[in-house]
Amino acid sequence: MIDHAAAADAWIQANPNVMHRLEQFALAAKETGRTKLGIGLLIERVRWYESVEKRDALFKINNNHRAYIARHLMKHSPRLDGFFDLRRAGDE
After folding, report:
1. What is the DSSP letter of 68?
2. N or C end of the chain: which has fewer CB within 10 A?
3. DSSP category for residue 52
4. Which one-letter DSSP state was computed for residue 62?
5. Which uninterrupted H or E stretch holds 81?
6. Residues ≥6 apart with Cβ < 8 Å to 45
7. What gap in Å lies between CA 61 and CA 64, rounded to an integer?
């Protein structure tokens, strides 16, 4: 069985620059007055940025990591606390 939490944590630790970009995009969305944002929208925004704008054809984010990324962002950026709606993760 795949440990999605461990895999997501490893990805988060290996991609601090991407995590920073995710945080910055989320904060920019919040500054527009939004009180909630779907993590999927944010992930797709980062995919576009990394793949198209930065032309990194190898960039990947596993969709199984999305919930863990949202939790990480809310835990480590107090301004994003409660910004993402959460469901139970598959291994919780």
Report:
1. H
2. N
3. I
4. -
5. none
6. 25
7. 8
